[in-house]
Amino acid sequence: MPADFALALHDLDRALTSIETVLDPAGKRAEIAELEQQVSAPDLWDDQENAQRVTSRLSVLQSEQERLISLRSRLDDLAVLVEMGQEEGDAATMAEAETELTSLRRSIDALEIRTLLSGEYDEREAVVTIRAEAGGVDAADFASMLMRMYLRWAERHHYPTEVYDTSYAEEAGIKSATFAVKAPFAYGTLSVEQGTHRLVRISPFDNQGRRQTSFAGVEVLPVTEEADHIDLPEGDLRIDVFRSSGPGGQSVNTTDSAVRITHLPTGIVVSCQNEKSQLQNKAAALRVLQARLLLKARQDREAELNALKGDGGNSWGSQMRSYVLHPYQMVKDLRTDHEVSNPDGVFDGEIDSFLDTGIRWRRSGELAEA
Fold first, then answer.
1. Distance of alpha carbon 301 from alpha carbon 288, whole angstroms
2. Which of 107, 303, 343, 364 is 20 to 30 Å apart from 156, CA to CA?
């Protein structure tokens, strides 16, 4: 076997073995067996919320196990392919092995990122809120660009999403929007996106064609679960209803179906207007409120401002990424220094490299503090 292939296969085997140690396949098999017993129970769906939790967890674990088994099988097959190609002096086989080596390395790297998501809420789905900050109409337009970026990222990965609330700006773009990404580890993955994003471009809204800088804030929250015990007494809530509206003030419907909930003890305000009925909007708003209260409870418990949420303060003090469209083309993460020269691709959802480097950067910081 060529020395370079032997070294590459050794490195991949070591990386995959390390991943297997962290993910504990034996422990996962035991949990899968237990969940399969619960799924087979005839009364499982008497409690739909628990049934969904059980079946979802089972699906995640089975997928994870299949992924590990597949990677180990591919690594073993690649070693055989390289040996065959070398013995027969077959250039086509060696070229096929080179292609598979690249693909396998990418797959193992992606799974390694998954092992770094070990925070308290990292396994959960995510609720993402985007707000226009400094920059007027350009900031509102930038906020809508970021929203599309994350929704396209989710679409590329086949992750379901649900938009809870969109507040449109008067001229263009959005004042704010809140949506859910319904996939395992969505919170752990997207939480590195928290902070202020900065856009530099020639403003399409400036008649003189001047360069403008605008800002938008991104907040990522973990979805609450039954075990979180977030109490919401009715006396702590003020619930207002209003008429949903779309861009330009056009009415989405003719009934007061939109819901705004104020949590009186904390002053937290959430709203939802994208569902068709008032009850659906209320339920969605309560989910967002619970997520915010869950985050606040953790911050209070750990006495660490921004332990998860990040500093959403002024536009200049918490910048985490710059998107430059003029005078050159570049997107750069200000924490990791990772950058690409294809803003169009980034705005179309190609943000995995930023997520991966952000997760590694966060993990290295956690290890340094330990």
1. 20
2. 364
Q: Both 103 and 141 in a single domain?
A: no
Structure tokens at 6: 């032997």
* pLDDT tens digits along 12-23: 999 999 999 988
Last residue of some domain: 98, 115, 132? Answer: 115
Residue-wise pLDDT for 302-316, tens only, equals 654 444 444 444 343
Q: Which residue has the tokens 């995959």?
A: 16
- The model's pLDDT over 44-102, given as tens digits with 9 standing for 90+, comes to 999 887 888 788 889 888 988 999 999 999 999 999 999 999 888 889 999 999 999 99
Strand 258-263 to 237-242 pairing: antiparallel
Q: Are residues 340 and 236 in the same domain?
A: yes
Q: Are residues 106 and 210 in the same domain?
A: no
For residue 269, give its domain range: 121-370
In angstroms, rounded to a whole number, what is the distance separating the alpha carbons of residues 189 and 96?
A: 32
Among 95, 115, 135, give the residue marking a domain's end. 115
Q: Which residue has tokens 């911050």?
A: 299
Q: Please enumerate in sequence order all residues whose Cβ is within 8 A of that of 352, keeping only pairs 6 or more positions apart, or say none.
A: 153
Asked whether 228 and 120 are in contact (CB, 8 A), the reply is no
- By three-state DSSP, how is residue 331 classified? strand
Query: pTM of the prediction?
Result: 0.78
